[in-house]
Design goal:
The chain has 149 residues and is α+β, with helices and mostly antiparallel strands. It has one domain (36-145): Immunoglobulin-like (Sandwich). The chain is built from 2 helices and 9 strands. The strands form 2 sheets. It has a 6-stranded antiparallel sheet with strand order 6-5-3-2-7-8. Strands 4-1-9 form a 3-stranded mixed sheet, with no helix packed on it.
């Protein structure tokens, strides 16, 4: 058993080590993310009709890992990921299968985006044929086609 005098002298050191050890564990855990931006092209229609809808990617090796980004009027998007309950910019490295997610959100004016002029296959991961790879810096290009009129 440690005498009380010795304990009082060593207490500040023990407290400091405890704090430093705890702080070292307070960093982000889980997979590292890399910034990902991308562009969608829409053959046979105006890409601005996809604005407000999203791109969603599912990591091929772990379907629980997903990244998504809202499509802008120029077809550009930036991916974010929900990892361990925290929103993070970018995506974990690896190959993703992708799809388009139709938005039911309303904009600042209370208006929903119109139904996108897409072939229905782009709405499902299993049928879209869309994929991309995330590495340290990734610029994703996704080419879509409009649905037949």
């Amino acid at each position: 058993m440690m005498p009380m005098k010795r304990f009082k002298k060593s207490f500040p050191v023990i407290a400091l080590l405890t704090i430093l050890t705890g702080a070292a564990g307070c960093g982000r855990s889980g997979p590292k993310t890399h910034p990902v931006t991308g562009t969608i092209t829409l053959d046979g229609a105006d890409v601005s009709q996809l604005a407000g809808h999203s791109v969603e990617g599912v990591l091929e090796t772990d379907p629980a890992v997903r990244a998504s980004g809202v499509i802008q009027k120029d077809g550009r998007f930036k991916l974010v990921s929900l990892l361990e309950g925290e929103m993070r910019e970018g995506a974990a490295p690896g190959k993703y299968n992708a799809r388009i997610v139709v938005s039911d959100d309303v904009d600042d004016h209370g208006k929903k985006p119109g139904w996108p002029p897409l072939a229905k296959r782009f709405l499902r991961i299993e049928t879209s044929g869309l994929s991309f790879v995330v590495s340290e810096t990734s610029e994703v290009q996704l080419a879509l086609s409009a649905r037949a009129r």
